[in-house]
Design goal:
- The protein is α+β, with helices and mostly antiparallel strands and 249 residues long.
- The protein has six helices and eleven strands.
- The strands form four sheets. A five-stranded antiparallel beta sheet has the order 1-2-3-5-4, sandwiched between helices.
- Strand 2 and strand 3 form a beta hairpin.
Length: 249
Amino acid sequence: MPNTPYLDASVRWKLKSGSIAFREPRTAEVAAQLLDNGLVTEVLGTIGAGKEADVFLARDGNRLVVAKSYRLYRTSNRSRGAVKADGMGHLASREFELLGYAWAHRAPVPEPFQREENAFTMEFVGDGDGPAPQLRRTQLDAPADFARELLRGIDDLAHAGVVHTDLSPFNILVHRGHPVIIDLGKGLRVDRLGASPWIRLSEARTALEHALETLRRYFARYDVPFETEGITAQILRDIDRFGVGTYPE
């Protein structure tokens, strides 16, 4: 659990003054918070909801954006009481940071814009008809090309030092025929310490193997071979800057 000084000044003030409510805000209250924090100028509606966050379509001036707000209490996170705001603010900050690293390395992710407390804004991936659909809800016109591009995207993420720990057709969008990877909230930053390099690489290997197997099964419906042989070892070898792993040739 992060330390209290990690919190935004506004959250620390709310906790200290007792003005924070220890219940889940209603949708209208979350929208008002997004406006009050200056993240958006207009909330247009909800796009969806995950296990721990709600996602809104909004405007920041003339620009369409997506606002993601981590819920404080109606989540799978086990924190309680005042530290809940701390913990969910930490998750928002972490995902925002991982998006920044990935975007800077040209990985196929939405561009992050601003963060305040437990919410942040990012690029709207879609068009005039609405948000780009999830891969699981899309019939691909060129599945072999999409699969190759997706593998390059996973490799680009790894070169940014990021490994998605829950990659599946649920958190891959199809935008103009190209993959966009979302939901990095529980991603691994594998090129930084915080745990031993061996442990980080072991976690990355497990996540990559799970993701590649999930995607192999998905592309099998198109009779497209999702070539995973040696890919995990190649990616781990590239990101193992401490040389602690062993990888088959």
